[in-house]
UniProtKB/TrEMBL annotation:
Domain Nucleotidyl transferase stretches: 2-205
Ribosomal protein among keywords: no
Gene name of this polypeptide: rfbF
Record-listed E.C. numbers: 2.7.7.33
NCBIfam families named in the record: G1P_cyt_trans
Name of the protein in question: Glucose-1-phosphate cytidylyltransferase
Enzyme category, top tier: transferase
Keyword Transferase (UniProt): yes
Domain of life: Bacteria
Keyword field: Nucleotidyltransferase, Transferase
Amino acid sequence: MKVVILAGGFGTRLSEETQFRPKPMVEIGGKPILWHIMKIYAAFGFRDFVICLGYKGALIKDYFLNYHYLQSDITVEPAKGAVTCHQKEVEDWRVTLVDTGLETQTGGRLLRAASYLEGQPFMMTYGDGVANVDIGKLVAFHQQHGLLATVTAGHAPGRFGALTLGETDRVEQFREKVVSEGAWVNAGFFVLDPKVLSYIGGDQEPFEFKPLTALAKDRQLAAFRHPGFWQPMDTLREKNQLETLWRGDHPPWKVWS
């Protein structure tokens, strides 16, 4: 199953960092938060990534084009034009980098990446949030309920899309950006059937508005309840919180060894 990561937004609430680079390239512990997200999925065996680029996407392309060298010790012989890698451990990932447009909304980015999904169910998340979600259990939950979409429901302040959950884990209602401290909210980490793409109207369609609202109305959106750690990185304060956690003994989203 492929993993789509939305990495094209402007990241305006973190402008201290994003005036120089896209938000997914903002570093936690010396590594882009995008790397941390990919490590979470890879820990559960999901290593085939489709990254939707937009704002300053060339910097993400450069990062992966040079990834092998960045992760290794190297010997450079300028006169010969030769570079020898003394390879350290390099992740066994497959990364497809898709230019999905500068002004494209989240739903539109999914549509633009559709040709790389091969008509198969896929996972999707945002390029600015980490969690200790059990991805294996998330996928199994999605396969068991048989609906078109699963969203991971986490706890966070009320600037996120609030979910009204029924007793059977179906999402009865989806309301974007409702002020409700402590509610179940959209934490990303979706599993989606390709039929979900038909709910998206075009480039300017945010996935979090009409598509998710319609899926909930059609009773095709389930919630995987995750009471554990989840933290987006929308502000400098949140970035600094993640840095502090990473420097601790047990960063809560570090599910890999």
